[in-house]
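In keeping with the milestone schedule agreed at the kick-off meeting, the structural modelling team has produced records for the first pair of proteins. Each record is given below as a sequence line and a structure-token line. The laboratory manager (R.T.) confirmed that both were archived under the project's standard naming scheme.
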Amino acid sequence: MTLASPHLDILKEELCSLHAELIRWGLVAWTSGNVSARVPGADLMVIKPSGVSYEDLTPDSMIVTDLDGNVVDGTRSPSSDTSAHAYVYRHLPEVGGVVHTHSPYATAWAAVGEPIPCAITAMGDEFGDDIPVGPFARIGDHSIGEGIVATLKGHRSPAVLMRQHGVFTIGKDAKAAVKAAVMCEDVARTVHLARQLGPVARLGQTDIDKLYDRYQNVYGQHPDEHNGATA
């Protein structure tokens, strides 16, 4: 089946480009990772095909499924993580993008089942909390999705370390979820290196709250700002 929609074509192009970002930032090896996006206004999502190298991905190779993981557009099998992504979209309606990686430093924390403590300002900004650990679950059905939702629902962090597996991130769209995956690996590496130098203390909760509020609500450009505003 083929769905004809200019909006869907744009989403497939964006998703293809975002998979290249996983390589650019060193978050994946071979074909071990994926990005998906919710199709706005429809109970559908777009995800990469299973086992296809990133260099061979094209917009036309992207797979469209419903939110139960059933293929509705595409000629290949979708990612083996499709059920997990679909479960997240069904249970977290605010989520527009999901990313899965096995990025080395963050996955090392997942392997030992330890949350990454919110010990640096960059974590306060981006995550507003420790990056939590989710339960171990086998690949192939929605069990991983259940763990993601149970861990992140009501949590500030857009990233979860699934125990002895890897990283899943969520965002308002696929680009935001990719950014969260990039930043998760960055802080995982930094805090790991810091612990080689000595004990690492978590920031105070008040400081974390203020950092998070500033970054989410003040930092960057805002559409209602006047052109003549100064820094």
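The second protein of the pair:
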Amino acid sequence: MTKDFSQNRTLQILKDAATRKYGVLAAIAYNIEQLTALVRAAEAKRSPLIIQLFPSTLKQLPTLAFAAAAAVTQASVPISLHIDHAQDVDHIREIIATIPVDSVMVDMSHYDMAENLEKTKILAKECHDKGIAVEAESGRINGGEDGIADTGDLEALFTTPEDVDNFLAAGIDILAPSIGNLHGDYGPAGPAPGQLHFDRLESINKQINNRVHIALHGTNDFSPEIMRKCIDNGALKLNVNKLLLEVWNEHLRKHAAGTPLVTLLDDGMQILQKETEKFMDICGSSGKA
């Protein structure tokens, strides 16, 4: 029997965001220092937060998920733990059996549509039986980044109204549409004019009519204005990776050779915390917890 989702942390966070019209950062962490900075930012800003880990990180640093799960339960603001872009069926089953996660992105977009939908439907049921919410990608978002298998020669596919209906029928809780967004970098100027189809996002939001929530992937190089426009057109869960973490990466590149390790990490966490706080303000989640 599918569990009652009234206590699912990810869905509680997104439901409040939908009701009060703001966006929530779903932030990737690759290590304990980044995790710590993200949580400190959420508490400092009194903001909800979704912590995201890639399946590759679960294998590289097996204890990080349990540190994140502890942060979720100990934080003074609403935080949830999400596994992003889980692309291997067996690993997904291992994750939901062994790690206290709140939600999983079941990413079968590297299969053709029929197989994508069938696998998504089966895995959504298995996740729901454990009280775990499910995100899926409709269409196909092009590109790749650290932690995600590149789509390679597969063509990017925009989300259609039929895609939306099919994925809702598969039983998902969060929909990640393809509207011209891409995994990886757009370039220093950000997305080109017209690259992001805000009208498509708005139409998808109207079509789902609050039955599921919308996640937006591919936010590298987004300006505050683009981020807010995405939120205004229905995106609630804003997946962020390099958008936040580049300040951390730049700090390490500049100072690793001549700075004691403890100081390097302390300074890096403060820098990342401030960047995260800035985007919480941009998304409108500050003060909402």
